[in-house]
Amino acid sequence: MNQEHLKEDLIIIKISGNIIDDEARLENFLKELAAVKGNKILVHGGGVMATQLAKELGIEQKMIEGRRITDKDTLKIVTMVYAGYINKKIVALLQANQSNAMGLTGADGNSIKAHKRKNANLDYGFAGDVDEVNVELFQQLLGNNIMPVIAPITHDGQGQLLNTNADTVAQEIARSLSKNFNVQLVYIFEKPGVLHDAEDESTVIANLHYSYYQQLKIKGLIFAGMIPKLDNAFAALNSGVQKITIGSANNLSLVLEGKAGTTILKDE
Amino acid sequence: MNQEHLKEDLIIIKISGNIIDDEARLENFLKELAAVKGNKILVHGGGVMATQLAKELGIEQKMIEGRRITDKDTLKIVTMVYAGYINKKIVALLQANQSNAMGLTGADGNSIKAHKRKNANLDYGFAGDVDEVNVELFQQLLGNNIMPVIAPITHDGQGQLLNTNADTVAQEIARSLSKNFNVQLVYIFEKPGVLHDAEDESTVIANLHYSYYQQLKIKGLIFAGMIPKLDNAFAALNSGVQKITIGSANNLSLVLEGKAGTTILKDE
User: Fold this and answer.
1) Which of A189, B68, B181, B215 is the most buried (most CB within 10 A)?
2) A207 DSSP β-pair partners
């Protein structure tokens, strides 16, 4: 008998900032998510609010190679916006849809431990790279029919909060929990899936195998912003995650069933 | 056999804003709290940061009879500051002291349900009065050796977050959990206890009985700011909470043992 069949299913959904910024879309998405049965974990990104708040407060945002450098003031802002405003807004909306959500950062219940990123050439500030996901805690919460809602803030166990990429958080949770669950990792963003032509939403690639992805990358046919997401997705697939899908917030249930969006596949 | 003896002990501690604003004091206090054994819940207030942030963002703070009126922008700010910045800072510091803390608002796990305060004469805005504490959730968390750390934000179950007085939150949790635990409710603030003379910290009233409190109140010998706190404390005592103490952050263990601070007592 296959061990995989004894495991319960778990859906881990990462939503990107664009959905968070669009109030009506977020509400519709959370309503649909609340209706999905079974074990679920939601991971959310940031959206424009942190940048706007920093601007209003006159805090300069340092970007290096497309990454935000998290200095002390920026960490304060992302903690307020991600773990405070956005996380609690999402949790309250899920509760309104009879879904028993609970918002967590990596510090809460020691759910995700990380270390401050070290780089000899570049100081990323308070950016965290994940060391450990607290599998037992997630199992307890899911076992009590609670849906963890994760803000992309981790901690180092020494009292320091750290800003961590939300895609990475979702992937690390998926990887760690894949030992105990059949995990489907779902990236939800503003496009209907991975597109052949970034300008044409009808060109969704339904099934994206690793070798084909490599070809598209070499030919420059993958939009730059998608590359870290897809690299992460293939890495997760190679480390135990059973299924990965990328799709739009507008039709969550179809994406979950693999009837919309892009399914990421290992080579056969 | 007395039923009370079968219950486990639970300490519920409310810390006021003054302690949160003083970084070194907060760190020392949390270190001492982490060392206290057994079931614990921490409830924290707000401090000056929300007011400062509102000022920096040019959001006018409306106060009526000493109460902050929570309009939409103010709710956003207190959610960011209380549930985001302060709550996560406290949780990370407790984790650094090997105490498995988990930060929650009333929306998280539906821990505290409230309704928007109704008043025909005065619109308090998004201020919440508590309806229900989720006893089962707190029992589960405490049973898993987790210390809940509660930010004074509740929800109405319809998707609306609400700003709620932290003293009231502590009292409502204490009252609800006193059915299942022997609850000691502890208010920690900047003074060493309830004082005979507000100017002289050596005049701590060690034991404050209800009838004596009434006398002091009539004579105008209780500092105005203490009255709601003490009224709340006596109400909690009359609704099942076993023990209430008020004391300073500087000597938590002595306050917990009743060797410092003020113990609130029913009349004999």
Assistant:
1) B181
2) A263
Pair of tokens at residue A29:
């998405």
- Sign, CA dihedral A59-A63-A66-A72, equals negative
The answer to whether residue B76 neighbours chain A at the CB level (below 8 Å) is yes
B83 to A84: CB separation less than 8 angstroms, yes or no: yes
pLDDT at B143 over 90: yes
Question: Is A101 within 8 Å of chain B by CB?
Answer: yes
Top residue of B80, B149, B164 to mutate, by most chain A CBs within 10 Å, is: B80
CA angle at B59 for the pair B58 and B63, rounded to the nearest 5°: 135
Residue of A27, A57, A85, A88 best to disrupt the B interface, most CBs of B under 10 A? A88
User: Encoding tokens for residue B29?
Assistant: 């206090």
How many Å apart are CA B175 and CA B181, to the nearest integer? 10
What's the rounded Cα separation, in Å, for the pair B245 and A91?
34
Domain region containing A126: 3-265
Can you say whether the dihedral through the CA atoms of A15, A16, A19, A22 is positive or negative? positive
CB atoms within 10 A of CB A198: 15
Report yes or no: A115 at the B interface, CB cutoff 8 Å. no
What is the value of pTM for the model shown? 0.95
Structure tokens, B2: 């007395």
Q: Are A75 and A91 in contact (CB under 8 A)?
A: no
The 10s digit of each residue's pLDDT in B191-209 is: 899 988 888 899 999 999 9
| Integer Cα distance of B221 and B110 in angstroms | 40
What is the rounded CA–CA span in Å between residue A7 and residue B7?
37
| Chain centroid offset of residue A7 CA | 22
Complex ipTM > 0.90 = yes
CATH of the domain at B71: 3.40.1160.10
Residue for token digits 């000597």? B251
pLDDT of A3 strictly over 70:
no
Give pLDDT, residue B68. 72
Region of B65 (left: φ > 0; alpha: ψ -120 to 50; beta: rest) is: left
pLDDT at B16 exceeding the cut of 60: yes
Tell me: the pLDDT tens digits for A98-107? 999 999 999 9
What is the C-alpha to C-alpha distance for residues A166 and A178, in angstroms, rounded to an integer? 18
B68 exposed, middle or buried (CB, 10 Å; 0-12, 13-18, 19+)?
Answer: buried
- Write the CA distances from B100 to A61, A74, A144, B96, B254, integer angstroms: 33, 26, 19, 9, 23
Contact status of A31 with chain B (Cβ, < 8 Å): no
Give B207: exposed, middle or buried? Use CB within 10 Å, 0-12, 13-18, 19+: exposed
Number of independent structural domains in chain B: 1
Q: Which residues of A183-196 are buried (b: 16+ CB within 10 A; e: fewer)?
A: bbbbbbbebbbbbe
User: In chain B, which among 226-255 make CB contacts under 8 A with chain A?
Assistant: none
